[in-house]
Specification:
heterotrimer; A alpha/beta; B alpha/beta; C alpha+beta; A: alpha/beta; Transcription Regulator spoIIAA; 5-stranded mixed β-sheet; 45% helix; B: alpha/beta; Globin-like; 2 domains; rod-shaped; HATPase_C_sf (chain C); Anti-sigma regulatory factor (chain C); HATPase_dom (chain C); STAS_dom (chain A); STAS domain-containing protein (chain A)
Chain lengths: 124, 273, 140
């Protein structure tokens, strides 16, 4: 039995903060939990905080992209926040650009991004 | 050992003379005098301990003194010859003693000469090591100096790149810029390459990677100051800049960045009065 | 390829037979990457490469082991990791090192991506015998 990453709710936004070195099974569980929760709580947005994450390999990268696609199907927007510079450089070198995943520098900016999308006041 | 103690005063005086002559007064004679007398003492102690090998325990004191001396010479800009002479001049100073000396003296001299040669090599090694340290620390200082990340506006940072970009430097810039995004919470970054004379494939790739990495972190990167020749090279090399925003000048890039971060620039009708 | 392990610290072996061994491999490699003085970015690259290869060993090789430790050559220090399995092997190594090619359900970035993240990359494989991948990164 592996540990599960807790999914928190703030209003209509789900917040996941990853604090541990992720095992592959935990990653898959998280993907499943989030899909369930988006529907169960009719969430409009998902924020995944990876400030504490030191390593994002192709497995975790793929999970982030998959969650973004799933949530889009369920009419919720996903934002990945707090990626460290070293992690970003490594992902680029690895060949992963996480297309379709929205990103923000920190939690606050991520929440602001979701608010802007929700009100349709987005610049792009 | 006896060779060194018989005529001690004359030998040390000649040694000190020889060394200070070669240094042409760039180190005071008093200083040379102090250095070499200390060395002489240590050398005599070492020989008295009966050690045959310059790298043996008996000469550890001598080696420590010589390493220190070589380090200082390297830092003060002396040449390797001017450093090694500190040891080799002692051989010359000893030669007169051989003229009327016995066969034993000659054997003793040869033994000592071998040790001195080894010690001279040791000074060169210590000298080179110091120079290498100086070079590598200068290189990293230069790297730091040449890549300032400046804040242009709240939420907008820039790196003005000047000079030739190589792979290593571009990588340093990349890391510094990305870290600055986190530290300042800036969502807009500008890489200005007005001062860069040429761009090769590798450097262009690094710039592209920086932009993509910034995007992964949630920031947007604009490249400005691409000169006509560089634009031609980039196209000729077949490097695809894709949807990366490029602007002719830093001013244009700043304007773009400000607009993206929701700042409106308005020119007042009355000309600013 | 013979790995120039640093004489003062023997390499350590980590079995890779279950899911959490991938995490353990990462952690072990991190310790060595820090010890040999890699910069944070270089550490991250090396650990990520190790993570990809550890997963390959588990998923495609049917399990195996990792040997990791400090290396030394011409006075330079670095970190190395050797992943070995006795699985099915890779029939076409050129193809396996192509971006986007995968025999399983992955993104096909494991081998080719890992190669880009390190200074030295050696792939030794034989069909029905197994695969050994060696990666090295040198401190600047």
């Amino acid at each position: 039995m592996t540990e599960r990453v807790p999914v928190l709710r703030i209003g209509d936004i789900l917040l996941v903060s990853i604090q541990v070195d992720l095992e592959d099974q935990t990653v898959l569980d998280l993907q499943e939990d989030l899909a369930d929760q988006i529907v169960a709580r009719s969430a409009r947005g998902v924020v995944i905080d990876i400030t504490a994450v030191e390593i994002v390999d192709s497995f975790v990268g793929r999970m982030l992209a998959t969650i973004a696609s799933i949530s889009r199907l369920l009419d919720a927007e996903t934002v990945v926040v707090g990626m460290r510079p070293a992690v970003a450089i490594t992902l680029v070198e690895l060949g992963l650009s996480l297309g379709g995943v929205r990103t923000a520098l920190d939690l606050e900016k991520g929440l602001a991004l979701l608010r802007r999308s929700a009100t349709g006041a987005e610049l792009t | 050992m006896e060779l060194l103690s018989i005529d001690q005063e004359r030998v040390t005086a000649e040694w000190i003379d020889g060394v200070s002559r070669s240094l042409q007064g760039r180190i005071s004679k008093a200083e040379v005098d102090r250095e070499l007398r200390e060395l002489y003492g240590a050398l005599v102690d070492g020989l008295r301990a009966g050690d045959e090998d310059a790298r043996g325990d008996g000469f550890s004191e001598v080696r420590a003194l010589l390493t220190e001396l070589s380090r200082n010479r390297a830092r003060q800009g002396f040449t390797p010859s001017e450093t090694a002479i500190s040891v080799l001049a002692l051989k010359q100073a000893l030669e007169p003693a051989l003229r009327n000396g016995s066969a034993e003296d000659t054997t003793a001299y040869l033994r000592l000469a071998r040790i001195l040669d080894d010690l001279a090599l040791l000074t060169i090694e210590a000298y080179t090591r110091t120079r290498e340290q100086i070079i590598s620390s200068q290189a990293s200082q230069l790297m730091e100096l040449s890549t300032p990340v400046v804040k242009l506006w709240d939420g907008v940072i820039a790196v003005p790149l000047v000079g030739t970009l190589d792979s290593a430097r571009t990588q340093v810039v990349m890391e510094k810029l990305l870290q600055a995004l986190v530290d300042t919470g800036s969502e807009q970054a500008i890489i200005d390459i007005t001062g860069v004379p040429a761009v090769d494939t590798q450097v262009a790739q690094h710039l592209l990677k920086t932009v993509v990495a910034a995007r992964l972190m949630g920031a947007e990167c604009t490249i400005s100051g691409i000169r006509p020749q560089i634009a031609q090279t980039i196209v000729a090399l077949g490097i695809e800049f894709g949807d990366i925003v490029t602007k002719a000048s830093l001013a244009d890039a700043l304007q773009h960045a400000l607009r993206r971060s929701g700042v409106d620039l308005v020119t007042r009708q009355d000309g600013g009065r | 390829m013979t790995v120039p392990w640093a004489p003062e610290a023997p390499p350590q072996t980590q079995p890779i037979t279950q899911n959490d061994d991938v995490v353990r491999s990462r952690q072990q490699v991190r310790t060595f990457a820090q010890q040999c003085g890699l910069s944070l970015v270089e550490q991250t690259k090396f650990i990520t490469a190790a993570s990809e290869l550890a997963r390959n060993t588990l998923v495609y090789g049917g399990g195996g082991e990792m040997r990791a430790g400090l290396v030394e050559r011409h006075g330079r220090r670095g970190v190395a990791a050797v992943f070995a399995d006795s699985g099915p092997g890779i029939p076409d190594t050129d193809l396996a090192l192509t971006d986007g090619w995968t025999s399983g359900g992955g993104l096909g970035l494991g081998l080719s991506g890992a190669r880009r993240l390190v200074d030295e990359f050696f792939l030794d494989t034989e069909v029905d015998r197994g695969t050994t991948v060696t990666i090295v990164k040198w401190a600047r």
